[in-house]
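Worked problem 6 (solution included).
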Amino acid sequence: MRDTFSLAGTLTAAVPALALAAVLALAAPAPVAAQGTFQPLVYVNGSAVTVFELQQRERFLTLLNAPPELVTGSRQALIDERLRAQAAAQGDVKVNPEELQAAMEQFASRANMSADQFVTELGKAGVAEQTFRDFLSAQILWRDTVRARFRSQVTVTDRDVDRAAHEIDQPIDMPPGTRVLLSEIIVRRGQDEDARAKTLIDRVATLTKTPAQFAASARQYSSAASRGDSGKLEWMPLENLPPEVRGTVAGLKPGQISAPIHAGPGTWAMFLLHERREEKGLLPEGVEALSYAEYLIPGGRSPQALAEAEKLRARVTSCDDLYAVNKGQPAERLNFATASSASLPADLRAELGRLDAGEASTGLTRGNALVFLMLCSRGKLMDTTTVPRTALKSRLEGEQLTQLAEAWMAELRATAVIREP
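Solution. The predicted structure is:
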């Protein structure tokens, strides 16, 4: 099952790795911690979080150029990690050392380093190796604990998959009406952290007055998957937007940015309207849909990455084979998608256009990773057989686990004894 929470979310939010190597290289060494920093900061069910741990976490996140709210939220994050570790101990769940090492290597690869090199650079900047290990192991431990506790409670039926597949295809059915081209910034926190989300979105609003600033803010602050594309969305019917958003967007003129919108508990949003148009009917039948998989290989177009891709090409004959390849690897290395060919970026559309189902390409890169791109199938977009059902079912299972994990976390916080010395 591909996870949609915890480790992947933390890595994505905390590591804008484009400048990570430079930040580490330029960071000034921190002074040796005074003895008082090892004093307890807070007790969580009798387990101490120390001042030193807080200082280390804040410095670690600062070196990673993490969003300010992640740095200022370090104290609460460490408290939550203690609660999760205690829950894991009760369930006798432990971190697999090999999995932790793999996560460290993957994390470090975003700065074009090995784990050992990354640890060395952290040390020069005053961050202990254990701080790095604790940061990653906490995510792995919680993911595995949630799996162990709730896996038997997660149920996704064929009807659920059919419904989700239909929702994927539905945007191609365009009744007459207004369609809008938007960019979004979504700030999402826990359901009980609405004030934190509001504080951040207000700060973003003060920094975001032009389309260029909106794109930069989306890349830095947004919690949505669209952050990777500067917040850009595809054309959509205005009626498809949630009611709390629709009225605000309807009042925008092209080029205008909305004020912050409350989009649910712990969730705030802003939108930039690029264009608006009126549709008179449906698209022609037979719109081509491409279902494809992307497996990311660290190293870009290095000889090592290209060699790994060729070995992979010899091993896999279908997209489903990639699940076994990605077993034990960070979930974000493997992505599935289904879209109309016309909606895809030109480079991706061109690569997929040269492939038959089951064939792969290594012509693209993403950041510091080589993209092993495989075409799963092609067909009419309204034909739900073009949707990779295994991937869709896995996504739905992950969403259920996320909801169960969030509810459990709220319960752990509510029943915990948290006190200062």
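Discussion: Residues 140 and 205 are 34 Å apart (CA to CA).
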